[in-house]
Automatic annotation (TrEMBL):
GO terms for biological process: protein O-linked glycosylation. Probable chaperone required for the generation of 1 O-glycan Gal-beta1-3GalNAc-alpha1-Ser/Thr (T antigen), which is a precursor for many extended O-glycans in glycoproteins. Probably acts as a specific molecular chaperone assisting the folding/stability of core 1 beta-3-galactosyltransferase (C1GALT1). Keywords: Membrane, Signal-anchor, Transmembrane, Transmembrane helix. The keyword Cell membrane does not apply. One of its GO terms (cellular component) is membrane. It is found in: Membrane. It comes from the Eukaryota. This is C1GALT1-specific chaperone 1. Associates with core 1 beta-3-galactosyltransferase (C1GALT1), probably not with the soluble active form. Signal peptide: none annotated. Belongs to the glycosyltransferase 31 family. Beta3-Gal-T subfamily. InterPro entries: C1GALT1/C1GALT1_chp1.
Amino acid sequence: MLSESSSFLKGVMLGSIFCALITMLGHVRIGHGNRMHHHEHHHLQAPNKEDILKISEDERMELSKSFRVYCIILVKPKDVSLWAAVKETWTKHCDKAEFFSSENVKVFESINMETSDMWLMMRKAYKYAFDKHSDQYNWFFLARPTTFAIVENLKYFLLKKDPSQPFYLGHTIKSGDLEYVSVEGGIVLSIESMKRLNSLLNIPEKCPEQGGMIWKISEDKQLAVCLKYAGVFAENAEDADGKDVFNTKSVGLFIKEAMTNHPNQVVEGCCSDMAVTFNGLTPNQMHVMMYGVYRLRAFGHLFNDALIFLPPNGSDND
């Protein structure tokens, strides 16, 4: 009996060691499978206002019209209150916004992905967006319903970026050898990155539906693995001062941290003036952000922006 127990324990230990080795090999493969691709940019910054002013007014107007952003929001039935807030606030500023849900929800219009697995939802949403809208939009922004986005700041950040190049940007995080864009801050893909991703979705060896490792990894890491095989690398978006513009936390949390770490520079030390996203918001905070960003004005302060992004004709953009 003791001999059998001993053999069983040895088997469990050997099996565990084998699993660990397989997982490590999986990470090595992910980290070094695409050395042939040259990564030309890593930290991307917004354009300078001076550079924009050098462009003629007609060219600026043409630029503002040429930027078309398609917004993808991944939702589940439990997110219905957040869903309502997002629908009524910042998504009105997208050139087109569509909600992709895990199941059919009668309350709001959405595209049913028929799965609650976040990676499968993300894959299907990207495929749907590319198949239906690849000829209409040059930038694709994906977010969770807890995220608030200032779409005009996103367009400004992308102003001098060529969508025919493989851009994959947001708030980057490093996990071992893999660098990925956190879905909590929102993910931006250019049309070229969408093309490359779409070409891999049916190749299980490079972009598996369930992942190539024993333990499941998050959907944003899975996306980075697939894109890396296509020579597309995660890039951190920053302003001219090096501050992140895609944020994985709320404004309130940033201010709380600034009051502790920079008590004499709470506002200046909090966040970028050109922030694109904040995350972790409640429905009430979404509406507060909407008021602060798009409604509240300080009398006597003029903000003569060099570029104006107009909503498309017929848009429900307020």
